[in-house]
Write a structure and sequence with these properties.
2 domains; elongated
């Protein structure tokens, strides 16, 4: 039995869950999310908890069991608390500014990079344009937007300049040894 899949998902107060076949709709204070899952996974609402059951011990069912439970848990946490990723910009002249709801990045390119947020995703800038917080209710979308921003200028190993996640370790390399003789 999957250790993740067999754990019930507690539904906090203020969160409404609707299960229709293999489709789950979760509504909370921050918004609503709806997702369809594999039709062989049984999703039930019992005693204020969501339980995911699998029909057999086949390899595919075992894999889908934990996945389905984790995705539903992310939906419940997203509509009640939300998710966020923090990015840090390191480098002289590198910064970010907000223009209306769009994020504009100055990362040493010949042009400014403008990032338009998808629905239900917002940006916050702190520390004079060097810290960006990407927040929203869908964990997958928040992570993808943060990865797209980081991809514009990943941290380089010599000076450490670029966009990195908060707490990310960037392995530094030594530069040239210099001319000997």
């Amino acid at each position: 039995m999957s250790r993740i899949g067999k754990m019930p998902i507690p539904v906090p107060s203020g969160v409404k869950v609707e299960i229709k076949g293999s489709t789950v709709k979760v509504t909370g204070a921050k918004g609503a999310l709806e997702k369809s899952f594999h039709p062989e996974m049984r999703i039930l609402l019992r005693d204020g908890q969501i339980v995911v059951d699998r029909p057999s011990d086949q390899r595919q069912h075992r894999a889908l069991h934990g996945l389905t439970r984790a995705l539903i848990n992310n939906m419940v946490v997203g509509v009640s608390d939300g998710f966020s990723k923090v990015l840090e910009i390191v480098g002289v002249g590198y910064r970010a500014v907000m223009r209306q709801n769009n994020l504009v990045l100055f990362l040493g390119h010949s042009h400014a990079v403008e990032v338009v947020p998808p629905p239900d995703v917002s940006f916050t800038i702190e520390n004079r344009g060097t810290t960006i917080t990407v927040s929203g209710i869908d964990k997958e979308v928040v992570g993808q937007v943060a990865a797209d921003i980081r991809a514009w200028r990943p941290p380089e190993p010599y000076k450490g300049k670029g966009v990195r996640y908060r707490g990310e370790y960037v392995r530094r390399k030594a530069g040239k040894a210099g001319k000997i003789g």
